[in-house]
Amino acid sequence: MAARKSSAPLIEVTARPGQPLGMAPATFLRDFWQKRPLLIRNAFPDFQTPVQPEDLAGLACEEGVLARLIEHDKAQDGWRVRTGPFQEDVFPALPDHDWTLLVQDVDKWDPDVRALIEHFSFLPRWRMDDVMISFAATGGSVGAHVDQYDVFLLQAHGHRRWQIDASESIKGKQPPLGFRPDVELKLLKVFKPTHDWVLAPGDMLYL
């Protein structure tokens, strides 16, 4: 007996020339927007990051910039969150692993980053909040969490592993949403990923 073909849209596609979403914007809005995640391989081919890690660290030291430094003690499964602006001597003192720097509103500070927003003109401008850039040292993470907004994650430099639980959007089964009371971050107590990917430069993940 032949297997029954599913009518559900694929969750991973490869971009095509002129279609960084791997499909027409109308198809994306119909089948994925606020419905299910999508990994788009090679959405921005030959992408060159406009912001280097040292530039991001320098920006995180400026007054008025929203920045967070998240460190993970894997031995104790402890998490530490520090907010900017940071002193310049903070970053040289960090280990070479298990931390992540996040800087919000980078589009307000860098015109090349701001130009990225033009690629998402199929969405109304009021839907767009900001361009946040993160840099993760080896093993760096922000932990298993739930975002309250739609996000396009563009891999700009290096490779990064992403794990997601898409059981609700694919199977209609809502995962448990209990949060850990012992950490500053709103991290899930239980996380069972349904998908596990490594993103390369130019790949983009929509959640």
Helix fraction? Answer: 10-25%
Biggest sheet statistics: 4 strands, mixed
Q: How would you describe the oligomerization state of the chains in this entry?
A: single chain
Q: Termini, distance in Å?
A: 36 Å
Might you state the CATH topology name? Answer: Jelly Rolls
Secondary-structure arrangement, i.e. CATH architecture: Sandwich
Beta strand %: 15-25%
CATH homologous superfamily identity:
Cupin
What is the alpha-carbon Rg in Å? 18 Å
Task: Please write the string of helix (H) and strand (E) elements.
Answer: EHEHEEEHEEEHEE
What is the highest CATH level, the class?
Mainly Beta
How would you sum up this structure, described in words?
- The chain is of the alpha+beta class.
- The protein has one domain: Jelly Rolls.
- 11% of the residues lie in helices and 22% in strands.
- The protein has helices at residues 25-31, 53-59, 111-114, 167-171; strands spanning 12-14, 38-41, 67-73, 78-83, 99-103, 133-136, 152-154, 160-164, 195-199, 204-206.
- It has a 4-stranded mixed beta sheet, with no helix packed on it. Strands 4-3-5-6 form a 4-stranded antiparallel beta sheet, covered by helices on one side. The chain has a two-stranded antiparallel ribbon with strand order 8-9.
- The chain is globular and about 45 Å long.
